[in-house]
Structures are given as structure tokens and as C-alpha cells.
């Protein structure tokens, strides 16, 4: 009876630890995906051609842009690669909001701040990246 009690405590403790590790893994996965969404917009800002003699491209124009309902738990890539399983999907749909704020630092320099926010299990998470960008020529 004593051994069964010790085993029960061990099993309960192990299940609690595994559940918590799974929750941390899901949070880390969502953070990685949110950072990828932010990096995608930063890459677009950095690679858009900007000639000093021409007009400023739309994406580099000062202002705020907000994109809603970006799916963070989209596993299309896993499905295409044959890696999809019940364990690669989350138990709920997670949608993010990406906000891009572009401001003029000078006539030839802009600053872009990209913020991605999402809610998972009642808690709001936010990641943010920023960059400075100058014209392609002088």
C-alpha cells in the first residue's frame, strides 16, 4: 500500500510537470511564429527599393498600418512536408494583430517598428522589432 502511494505521488507529479512543459512549448512556438511575422514585415521594409530622386514607396510612407486576424497556428507547411500530426496543432485558433509604425527620422532615413500581439489562454503576448532604413543611393 505504501509503494502504491509513492507511485501515485510520482505519477501525479510527472503528469503535472509534463503538462507544464507542454504549455511552455506552445507559448515558445507561438512566440517564434509571432517573431517570424514581425521579421517578415521588417524584411519587406528593408528590401523595398527606395530611390532618393523618386517617390517614397507606400510601405515606407510615414504612418501606422494594422493587419488583423493573422493565423499563428497555421500548419500548412507541416501538412505539405508530411509532418502534420495531432501533436503539431494547438487546441484553439490563435490570431495575431500586426501593427507597423513608420516614422521619418530625416529626409532620407525612416524608422519602422513592427509589433505583433496575440492572446493565448487568456493572456496577451506581444513581440516587437524595429529598424532604421535609408535610401538606396545618395
Question: What's this, in brief?
Answer:
It contains 2 helices and 4 strands.
Number of individual domains = 1
Approximate strand percentage: 25-35%
Order of helices and strands: HEHEEE
Q: Give the helix/strand class.
A: alpha+beta
Instruction: Give me the Rg, rounded.
Output: 22 Å
Q: How can the largest sheet be summarized?
A: 4 strands, antiparallel
Number of helices: 2
Topology, element by element:
Layout: H1 2-47, E1 63-71, H2 76-80, E2 95-104, E3 109-120, E4 123-134
What attributes does this structure have?
138 residues; alpha+beta; 2 helices
What does this entry look like structurally?
The chain has 2 helices and 4 strands. The chain is of the alpha+beta class and 138 residues long. Strands 1-2-3-4 form a 4-stranded antiparallel beta sheet, with helices on one face. The longest helix is centred in the first third of the chain and has 46 residues. The model has no long low-confidence stretch (mean pLDDT 85).
